[in-house]
C-alpha cells in the first residue's frame, strides 16, 4: 500500500431527496380534515474542503467511493422528513479537481478552509399539504424526491512547497532533504529511487519553509518521458528552485554542466517556471574527485548567473550556508508574492428574458425539451398517479412549454422528449392538458387523462 498518493479518481454520490407524503388529516367526527402530508428532506451534499493538516490523497485511494446521506420521506401531520447529512472530504491545499471523463478542470482549491460543493443533494419532494390550492384542495399525490448528483472526479495534488530540489535521478536530492529536515525518504544509489514527492520542513533563523524532493528528471521529461509531468507539475507551485548536481557521477556522457543544462532545458520546455529564482548545489563534496570537479565547475555556473554552494549531504558540510541562502530566497519570494486568497466561487445568474428551457425539433414528429425546470419536474413526478401527471402538465403549460412546442410546429400526438434523447422521458403530446382546466374526480385521478 502506498504512503503518498497525489492523484486519485473519486466516485461520489450526493444524497437523494426524500419523497413528499400524500396524506389527509383524519380524526373522530372529521374524516377529511384536509391534506397534511409533509415534505421530503433534502439529500446531503458532497463537499471538498482544503485542510492544512492533509498532505496526501491516500485516504481516497483506499476508499474511492463516497456517498452522502439521503433525505427522509415526509409523513402525515405535516411532519417534514429530515435532511440528509453532508459529507466533507478534506483535501490538501492546491488540489486540482477535474472531470474524470473529460479532463475539464472544475476548480483549483487554494487557501485553508476553501469549500466547494462537488455534488449537490437532491431536493426533497413537496407533500400534498404544500401542493394544495383553491382549485386543488386535497391533492391525492405528492412530489418525488430528486436523485442527488453522481459523478467521477479526479483529484490531483500539486505539492505546495517553497523550494523544489531538481536534478537527475540519484543526484542526492533525497539525501539532502533528509539532512536538512526530519524527512526520511527512501534512499538508494539506483535511478528513480524517488517515485513520489517527499516534503521536509526546514528552519533558517526566523524563516520556516518547506522543501520538496520530487522525482528526478531525464532529458525529454517535459514531453512525458521518464516520470515526465508526474515530476514537473509538483515543481509548478514552488517559488524557489535548487539544482542538485552530482559531482561524483561515473556515468558516461554526464558531467555537472551538461546535467545542469539538460535540467534547465526541460524546465524551459515545460514553461511556467522561467521566473523562479534559482541556486545551484554541487553535491558529494566529501568525495575527493568530486571536490576538485566542483572547484572547476563553480565559476562556470557563476558565469551563468547562478549562486553556487558546494555541499555534502553525507557529512553535512556547507548545509548551514545553503539553508540560510534558501531561507533568504524564500523570504524574498513571499514578500514579493501577492496575497493568496481562497478560491472564489463564481455564480452566474440566468440572463434576463431567458425562459429557462429550449425546444428543438428533432425530426418531422419528434421534439426535444431541455432545461433545468422541466427536467427537474419530470424527476419529481410519480407517473403511476394520473393526478400527478396532470399537475406536471399544468406546470409545463405555465412555464410556456406548450406555446413553444406549438411555435416549433408540434401537433397533437407528436413525440416529445424532455431531457436527453438517450435517457429523457418520452410522451405523446396532447395540447388539451392546460392549466385552465379545474381538476375534478377522485383523488389520484385527472379527468383530462381519461
Automatic annotation (TrEMBL):
Record-listed Mg(2+) binding positions: 174, 194
Highest taxon, organism lineage: Bacteria
InterPro entries xrefs: G_OBG, GTP-bd, GTP-bd_Obg/CgtA, GTP-bd_prot_GTP1/OBG_C_sf, GTP1-OBG_CS, GTP1_OBG_dom, GTP1_OBG_dom_sf, OBG_GTPase
UniProt keyword Hydrolase, yes or no: yes
The keyword Zinc-finger appears for this protein: no
Domain Obg residues, every copy: 2-160
One example GO MF annotation: hydrolase activity
Region annotation Disordered: where it falls in the sequence: 61-84
Residues that, per the record, bind GTP: 167-174, 192-196, 213-216, 283-286, 312-314
Subunit composition and interactions: Monomer.
Protein name: GTPase Obg
Lineage: Bacteria, Bacillati, Actinomycetota, Actinomycetes, Streptosporangiales
Amino acid at each position: 500500500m502506498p504512503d503518498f498518493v497525489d492523484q486519485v479518481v473519486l466516485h461520489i454520490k450526493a444524497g437523494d431527496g426524500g419523497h413528499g407524503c400524500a396524506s389527509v388529516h383524519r380524526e373522530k367526527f372529521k374524516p377529511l380534515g384536509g391534506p397534511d402530508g409533509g415534505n421530503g428532506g433534502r439529500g446531503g451534499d458532497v463537499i471538498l474542503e482544503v485542510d492544512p493538516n492533509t498532505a496526501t490523497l491516500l485516504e481516497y485511494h483506499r476508499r474511492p467511493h463516497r456517498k452522502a446521506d439521503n433525505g427522509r420521506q415526509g409523513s402525515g401531520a405535516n411532519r417534514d422528513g429530515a435532511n440528509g447529512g453532508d459529507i466533507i472530504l478534506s483535501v490538501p491545499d492546491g488540489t486540482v479537481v477535474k472531470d474524470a471523463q473529460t479532463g475539464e478542470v472544475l476548480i483549483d482549491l487554494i487557501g485553508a478552509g476553501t469549500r466547494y460543493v462537488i455534488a449537490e443533494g437532491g431536493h426533497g419532494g413537496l407533500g400534498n399539504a404544500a401542493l394544495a390550492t383553491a382549485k386543488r384542495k386535497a391533492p391525492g399525490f405528492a412530489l418525488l424526491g430528486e436523485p442527488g448528483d453522481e459523478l467521477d472526479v479526479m483529484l490531483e495534488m500539486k505539492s505546495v512547497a517553497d523550494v523544489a530540489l531538481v536534478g537527475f535521478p540519484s543526484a542526492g536530492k533525497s539525501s539532502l532533504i533528509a539532512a536538512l529536515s526530519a524527512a526520511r525518504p527512501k534512499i538508494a544509489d539506483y535511478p528513480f529511487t524517488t517515485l513520489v514527492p517527499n516534503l521536509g520542513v526546514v528552519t533558517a533563523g526566523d524563516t520556516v519553509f518547506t522543501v520538496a524532493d520530487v522525482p528526478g528528471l531525464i532529458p525529454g521529461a517535459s514531453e512525458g518521458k521518464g516520470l515526465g509531468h508526474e515530476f514537473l507539475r509538483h515543481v509548478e507551485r514552488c517559488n524557489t528552485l535548487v539544482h542538485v548536481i552530482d559531482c561524483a557521477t561515473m556515468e558516461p556522457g554526464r558531467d555537472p554542466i551538461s546535467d545542469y543544462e539538460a535540467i534547465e532545458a526541460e524546465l524551459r520546455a515545460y514553461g511556467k517556471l522561467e521566473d523562479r529564482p534559482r541556486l545551484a548545489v554541487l553535491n558529494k563534496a566529501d568525495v575527493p574527485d568530486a571536490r576538485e570537479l566542483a572547484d572547476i565547475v563553480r565559476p562556470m555556473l557563476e558565469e551563468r548567473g547562478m549562486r553556487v554552494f558546494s555541499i555534502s549531504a553525507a557529512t553535512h558540510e556547507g548545509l548551514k550556508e545553503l539553508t540560510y541562502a534558501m531561507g533568504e530566497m524564500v523570504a524574498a519570494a513571499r514578500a514579493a508574492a501577492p496575497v493568496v486568497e481562497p478560491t472564489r466561487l463564481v455564480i452566474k445568474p440566468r440572463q434576463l428574458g431567458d425562459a429557462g428551457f429550449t425546444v428543438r425539433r428533432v425530426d418531422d414528429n419528434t421534439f426535444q425539451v431541455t432545461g433545468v425546470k422541466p427536467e427537474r419536474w419530470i424527476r419529481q413526478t410519480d407517473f403511476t398517479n394520473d393526478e400527478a401527471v396532470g399537475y406536471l402538465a399544468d406546470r409545463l403549460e405555465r412555464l410556456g412549454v406548450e406555446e413553444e412546442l406549438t411555435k416549433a410546429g408540434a401537433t397533437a400526438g407528436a413525440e416529445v422528449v424532455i431531457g436527453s434523447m438517450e435517457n429523457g422521458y418520452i410522451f405523446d403530446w396532447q395540447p388539451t392538458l392546460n392549466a385552465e382546466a379545474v381538476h375534478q374526480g377522485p383523488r389520484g385521478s385527472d379527468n383530462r387523462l381519461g
